[in-house]
Amino acid sequence: MEPAIITVPLGSRAYPVVIGAGVRRLFPEYFARTGCRLAFWVTDVHVVEHWKEQIETLRDPTTELMVLPPGEDQKRLSTVEDLCRRLVSMGAERGDAIVACGGGVIGDMVGLAAALYQRGIVFIQIPTTLLAMVDASVGGKTGVDLPEGKNLVGVFHQPAFVLADTEFLNTLPQRELHSGMAEVIKMALIGEPELFAHLVKISEHGYDIFENSSYLIERCVNLKSLIVAQDEREKGRRAVLNFGHTIGHALEAWGGYQTLTHGEAVFWGMVAAIDLSRDLGLLDSAVADHIMTVIQPQLKPIPKLKFQSEQILELMARDKKTRSGRPEFVLLRGVGNAVIGQPLAESDILAALQRLRLIMRS
Ligand SMILES: NC(=O)c1ccc[n+]([C@@H]2O[C@H](COP(=O)([O-])OP(=O)(O)OC[C@H]3O[C@@H](n4cnc5c(N)ncnc54)[C@H](O)[C@@H]3O)[C@@H](O)[C@H]2O)c1
Ligand SMILES: [Zn+2]
Fold first, then answer.
1. Given Cys at both, which of 85, 130, 219, 309 links 195, Cβ 3.0 to 4.6 Å?
2. Annotated catalytic, 238?
C-alpha cells in the first residue's frame, strides 16, 4: 500500500508526516531533501533490541548510534547535556541533523537537544510507539521533566519530517500499544467524529489495532496538524489536545511515573473529564454512556490507584496546564466537540475525583 502523506501546514516550516508499513526505508530520500550533511541517530535500549539491524542500514557509519536507557526518568536536563556533549565529540555541526528514533520520551528529549545544540539544528522524528506516531512526534513540542513536575522545561522545535512506520508496532509491548490508544480515543473525542465511529465499530470486535493502525495514525495526525497550524504555540485552541491530561498528569505524578504509563493515566483522566462534562450539564447523559462503551473495555487492564482527592488537586495546581493557579480543564459538549475555559469550582473537581475513585473500585 502507498504510504499516506500529511503535511503540517506551517508556511515555510511546513513538513510531511509519512505513514505506512516500511516507510523508514524512505529516510535517505527525505533526508537528502533537508540538505543536511550528517544525521546523528538517537534511540533507546528497547528499540535497539529489536531494530538494530534495520537502523544500521539507514545510518551513516561514520557517526555513532546514541542508545539511551528507556523510561520517563531519562527525560531530564542532564540527558540533554550528555547528548549535546556526545554531539560535540562526534564533531556535529550546524548543518547536521539529529534523528529521534523511539517513543515519546526519546522524541521529546532529542527534540530539545536539537533545538539547543548550537542554537538549533535540524530535527527528524522516526516514532516507534503508537503514542508517538499518533501524537508526540507531530507538532514540535519538545521538553524534559523536572523533579517538580512533567514537561516543565522545553521549547517548540518542529521536525523537518516524520516517518511513522507501522512495522515498529510489531515489537511494541501490549501495554504500550494500549497506552497509545488513549491518545487515539482523545483525538476522536476532541475533533474526529468519523474516527470515533470507526472505534465504535472496531471495539465490537475486540480492537485489532494492527489491522487499523495506518488509518488510526492518519486520522490523528490529520487532526493534530490542523490544530497545530491554527495555534502552534498553544495560546488557545491547541489546549484541546490536553483533554484527559489535567487529571491524567496528576495521577501519573501520584504514581511516581512508575505505576501508570502516560496513556493509562490519560485514560483515567478522560473518564473523569467525561463524567465532569456530564455533571456540569455540558454533555448529554446518553452520549456520555455511548462514549464510555468505547472506553470501558480499555480500562480493564489499567492499574487502579488508591489516591486522595485533595492531593491530586494539589498536584493539578502544580501542573503547567494551570492559569493563575487554577487547573484548566478541557470538557466535552459532544463527540468531536471539545470546550476549554469553562469555569469550574474546586468542589466540582473534588466531586469528580471522588467519583473516579469509585469507578476505579468497581
Ligand atoms: N511532544 C508531544 O506533543 C507529546 C505528546 C504526547 C506525549 N508526549 C510524551 O511522550 C512520552 C510518552 O511516550 P511513549 O508512550 O512513546 O513512551 P516511551 O518513549 O517511554 O516508550 C514506551 C516504551 O516502549 C519502548 N519501545 C519504544 N518503541 C518500541 C518498539 N518499537 N518495540 C519495543 N519497544 C519499544 C520504549 O523503550 C519504552 O520502554 C511522555 O513523556 C509524554 O510526556 C509528548
Ligand atoms: Zn498525552
1. 219
2. yes
